[in-house]
Amino acid sequence: MTRAMEKYLRGGLGGTAFCPGCGHGILLGALLRAVDRIGIHQDDLLFVSGIGCAAWIPSPNIGADTLHTLHGRAVAFATGAKIASPKMTTIVVSGDGDISSIGGNHLIHAARRDTDLTVICANNQIYGMTGGQTACTTPVGARTATDPAGNPHRPFDLCQLVIGAGARYAARYPITRPPMLVDAIEKAIRTPGFTFVEAISPCPTQFGRRNDTPDVGDLYEKVEALCIDRENAESMTFDERLKHFVIGEFRP
Amino acid sequence: MSEQMTKSWRRQVRIGGEAGQGVILAGVMLAEVAAEDGREVAQSARYGAAVRGGDATADVVMADGPIDYPHVEEPDILITLSQPTYDQYAPKQKAGTVLLYDPFFVVPKKCEGVRQLAIPATDAAIREFGKGTGANIVILGALAALTGVVTTKSLQKVIGKNPKRRFRENNLGAIDIGAHLAGQAKEATS
Amino acid sequence: MPGLNEPSSRRVLMQGNIAAAEGAIRAGCRFFAGYPITPSSEIMVQMAKLLGSNDGRFIQMEDEIASICAVIGASGSGVKAMTATSGPGFSLMQEALGYGYFTETPMVLVNVQRAGPGTGQATHVGQGDVMQARYGTHGDVFPIALCPASVQEMYDLTIRAFNLSERFRVPTFVMADEAVGHLREPCALHGGFEIEHRNRHGEGAPFGSDAPDGVPPMPAFGDGKKLMVTGSTHNPEGFRKVDDPEIHDALVTRLMRKTEDHRGEIVEVEEFFLDDAEVAFFAYGISARTALAAARRLRKMGVRAGLLRTKTLWPFPEEAVAQLGRRVRAIVVPELNKGMFAGVCRAHAAAEVHSVTQTNGKTIEPGRLVTFVQEVLK
Ligand SMILES: Cc1ncc(C[n+]2csc(CCOP(=O)(O)OP(=O)(O)O)c2C)c(N)n1
Ligand SMILES: [Mg+2]
Fold first, then answer.
1. Tens digits of per-residue pLDDT, C74-107?
2. What is the pTM of this model?
3. How would you classify the pairing of strands A65-68 and C121-125?
4. What is the CATH number for A77?
């Protein structure tokens, strides 16, 4: 991360706890750039996260109020905090398993209520912290600790899910395209009401190693190759789309 | 809770009926009337999980001192507006107690030593208001006139406090009807 | 405060659940999150009404887990917050209660106990959650749990729960039951108490304290303190320390001491006819009213019976029970479960402890206790 963003980092920290090549650090950088562009004062920022590697993106790294909560419940905690203190810009940052599996119900209900929150989901398509088990975002056929022969189930399309539930704005970009991610996060924070950003944040340790891409460079290239713009995905069948990362912005 | 130990006036009233008949409301109102009379009072209810249908029981304990156990153990007065609650409670009534029942719903049976009085409240409510709702208040009017556990004056006062004009008018009328029925009430002879 | 009526010593007939909501508002509660469940729902409905007219915030969440999490989030924002629930909802809240305990978040939970386990009998009374209040969440915790026996106490003890919770930064339970929650009795919404507020602007780290009471200051989100709140083991500043044995032990120990060292301030018991008693009831909640009626009847019959009634379930009134055990021949514990507190009593009282249990969704009638004591004394 460049020096310019250091002002947003909490002092006294040696570095992040992420594995080499983890996308979560890049997402942290993108998030801070978006916050910086909007110019929100640090004292007016509350970051809420659940449990998992991604939940460590804001906590303790960001020099603002950080609320590191329970697995799956970040959105519910954030809802209470925001309603009780509306002046705080309240941003949830957490993992795919956290936000959309164990916490999936809180996610759709916050979208339905249109609570003024921005939820950023660091989607590494797996449970990183607990050792690479299948998530509800794991692609069909991908090998995981609990599906060594390949995951038989389809993943959620999280952006469509939250739009269906009432989100004002949703966007999906990979951490391999930081400028787009920064733009999307900025737009999400600036948009009043419930907004959502899905950051594709590959996990070399748990996902790459099991799926023929142990090398970080290869993994990032594979992610890039699977990205397809929203407009171009429209002609695809549903099952084809599920094999890709359909990137872009989604609105109701 | 207080430690005093004087022997004091205490009455237990139980109202049974079918949920939806206004049994709980009658219990709450009776408790308010007793409080208006300056009594200590505890009101509770027993009902099933459904909002309508099924048995409902409202209990009121009134006393001139603190009430320890707030539930009815042995009713001094039992009012039943339905056969199932009559069948459930009437056989357990102690000798010397009073039982008021609505003959529209209840066919009485023999209860040794119990003073059973028919109060045709539902009939009267239908005649007067075009429907059976209101029978619960008619019964309270009869209760006050017959037994004096609460005063008719406080009953009127509690009804009179209701902000809805129609509620006040109908129910003040219902109290009078109840008092009138009390005057004519005959003891069940079966 | 706009819309909040002046406190009054006039007693008005009121339902227990309503009195709890009134007490919460009087204590300064301005946030409620909940999910409907019998027999506690009246509290939520009343809070929706009262918070609307008192510049508070009310939210009906998607489930009880979300409700308790929202309450903890709101409390972190510096607002006094509460939820109310019953059996199944209380079970769902257990993980987050541990989180609230470990992050030292003040909050009040009213549990209007019903007849469990399972979905049990939703509209009928039980006292089966008293151990869950103490041991329901994982890890070793020392929560505070109060137990009202009347409508007036639904009001008074809800206020007290807020005060204790703010004072010690400990989630605090009002362990009511269906009988008290649905009871209607005269109740005065009086103003005869002090209101405690958390130490929001004090000096010192937010998760560690050298002060003898062990309670650190608690700044709110937005106070410019760059708070780090985490349910993982943390040092006094809030940094996660998930591998440091000393920090973990020190934290768990300090949290224990917050409640254990302040038993004198927290525990409240009431004594009835104990001066010369040879047999005594030890009771709580609605069963204490059965016991009091029974004690009076036994006295009239010439039996020297008394009652130790506790308003505090946790921390358990160990000293009072131990003392009782030295004073009487036998202790009788009536409760609407299979003898949960009789067991605790036995651990602290030298006298013989008899358990009277009832799990039929009804309160115990005084006559049953009178007969039982006569048998015991035979
Ligand atoms: C109630 C509960 N269940 C399970 C866990 C164990 N757990 C910790 S992190 C995690 C998965 C995290 O995955 P994700 O949210 O995708 O984050 P990642 O680590 O992949 O960034 C699980 C299951 C827990 N902490 N709490
Ligand atoms: Mg993940």
1. 999 999 999 999 999 999 999 999 999 999 999 9
2. 0.96
3. unpaired
4. 3.40.50.970
